[in-house]
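Protein 1 of 2
SEQ + STRUCT:
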Amino acid sequence: MPSIQALASHGANIPVIGFGTSQIGGDCGEVVATALAAGYRHLDAARKYGTEEGVGEGIRVAKIPRAELFITTKVSHENLHAKDFARSVDQSLKALGVDYVDLLLVHWPNAAIPLKETMQALAHERRAGRARHLGVANFNLAMVDEAIRLCPEPLVTLQAECHPYLDQTKLITGLKARGLVLTAYCPLGRGRLINDKVIGEIARAKGKSAAQIALRWLIQQDIIAPIPRSTNPGRIAETLAVFDFSLSDAEMQRIATLKRPDGRIADPAGRAPKWD
């Protein structure tokens, strides 16, 4: 079973690779149990995904001690008023079958709801013991700074889209300066990177898969924890096996040149901020 490294941020030790559950269907419980059996211990869920029940089922099937797991979930943008926020967390904990989550995130910003109210509601969950660590998702750096200023408890991560086709240099540099981990969703570009020529050449030279190369590229940037997802047992095990090799500086730079103007995948109209 692979030994999973961790990234430290303001008291949190975040496993450097997690298992994403977005868009996993009705067999989510079975898929999560498979991921846990393969060695995953960091599970990423969200109220909006509709996967919390499946994650809870997978945990029960796998019978992994709670203390060994790092469970993340998120409060959706329409539930950022304090009362709605607390109710959403109630629902998440019940669905997951746990007393607390290791990481609680604001899923998307909402300009119609005061950020101060949301950050106070987020901090309350940590103080109440229902979340051990806190963060935000899909914020730009200015929003991250405002969230840090307004939140009475420390933030440990920003979850955002990150992969070789999307230039996130400014975001990565900015988060490192602030001591935050970047949790990278869509780390394989929703499968688009699998057939990339450059990544394929490096993969063949290393005797690895394209997915392993793309994930290793993220991990070697020190503050990035990718959360790939798959429903295929072989690929689940494969995406976890990224700690027995490294990329050279030249290979890292070659992959970095793959960034392109149309690289962003998640950009919902009316909800997305002005990206960095």
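Protein 2 of 2
SEQ + STRUCT:
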Amino acid sequence: MFACFIGSGGTWLALHSVPSSTTADMLVASHVRSLMAAQPVDVGSSDQHTVKPWFNGRITEAPRVVDLATEGFPLVGGRIDVIGRTPLATLVYRRRGHLISLSEIPDGHDVGAPPRTIAGYNLLSWSENGVTYWAVSDVAVPDLDAFAKAFRSANP
């Protein structure tokens, strides 16, 4: 896991503030890389009270972690991705046999109008309470929309 973390962090040497299309490309690359790893998460747990504290001391602010199992999106765990030299919390959810990577980017990154699909992976982004969320997966667009709606309406 450590080697995967170091490898993914070392692959990006871009500036901190990157355009949204580049951010989208990097997030898709992170998602694909996680699918190729032995485990797609650094901390594996369906318990939000295990996943959220794991990020303490690893990133500047703990992510919003919600349990979406009743909506059909169980939590798999979390990992740290590095985008533009910035370590980000990425939560991983499952929809049937597919994984959804949800990255939380601190305020200051332009969401713009992200592409809906890159290399066969669907993307969806939104901003809320000073955080920009990016969901990446190969699930169908309606499923990704349902995931975003469930996440946005859930209580942490």
